[in-house]
Amino acid sequence: MRIQLDWFDERLSERVAAIAAGRLAPAVPRDAATVMLLRPAPGQPADGVEVLMLRRPAAMAFAPGAYVFPGGSVDTADADPRTGWAGPAPEEFADWLGTSPSQAHALVCAAVRETFEESGVLLATPADGTVPGPWEAFLAQDRAALAAGRVTFAEMLSRRGLVLRADLLTPWARWITPEAEPRRFDTYFFAAALPQGQRAVGDHAEADRIAWLRPAAAISAARAGAMLLLPPTAATLNEFAAGAGIAEILASRRAIVPVEPRFVVENGEAWLLVPDETGYPL
Q1: Other C-beta atoms lying within 10 Å of the C-beta of residue 97
Q2: If you ran DSSP here, which 8-state letter would residue 129 be given?
Q3: Please, which residues bridge with residue 272 across strands?
Q4: With DSSP H G I counted as helix, E B as strand and the rest as coil, what are the percentages for the chain, rounded to 5?
Q5: How far is CA 36 from CA 53, 58, 123, 152, 243, in A?
Q6: Domain 25-259 classification at class level
Q7: Which of 41, 101, 131, 189 is deepest in the core (most CB within 10 A)?
Q8: pLDDT-derived band of residue 212, with 50, 70 and 90 as boundaries?
Q9: How many CB atoms lie within 10 A of CB 253?
């Protein structure tokens, strides 16, 4: 599938040519993780879903103004083996994701940590099955401490007697930023249901708006030019728009095959080539 680009500048065009000619080595992608948080769509059939989306502030260097899922880069601390963990072991996630156990551990931790930092939703529970005091109050405190770097994610979980709930995450997809981009990410996508009793609260540094959107409505808005969606986001929303319910989505065990779009310049026009099998809808 060919997507014509109207934002492709001369600098990026030069990078495409330089990489194609072997004069420039592509940037090495950073590992990243993102989570599609799902909840039942109110007033819809039983299989209707809404997905949490964040609009990136216009001042951000990467994808300004785009609606995205919570997520971000893997940090060194995400590999901490002391992280409290419940559910499938990193070895199982490694098989599903096609990675090493250590990388799978870091990706799952990054997915949960970034979702917490950006949306306030924590995919973790007390190890002993109890709730330690006012849930929302301590979540807000710990979120602020984590964002400020005063505590690592593993330390936060340990202090609160929590374990990361790896069993709440369903591996969904993997997208790699095109070679010509100077900032590249190798992003693993996970699906998860919004935990009962929690609500999403945006982080103004990372998002100037948060919204629960029906996938088909988000795609329609993007087609009308009212919403900016990156190709991985649009393709994922299109899959959710097919009508599967949350239980069916989370029970999926998909083959995680990396998708890497690429830029081409032909006759002065720039195009992004996306594999047809992704189901890109725009």
Answers
A1: 19
A2: S
A3: 3, 263
A4: 35, 25, 40
A5: 8, 22, 12, 23, 16
A6: alpha beta
A7: 189
A8: very high
A9: 8
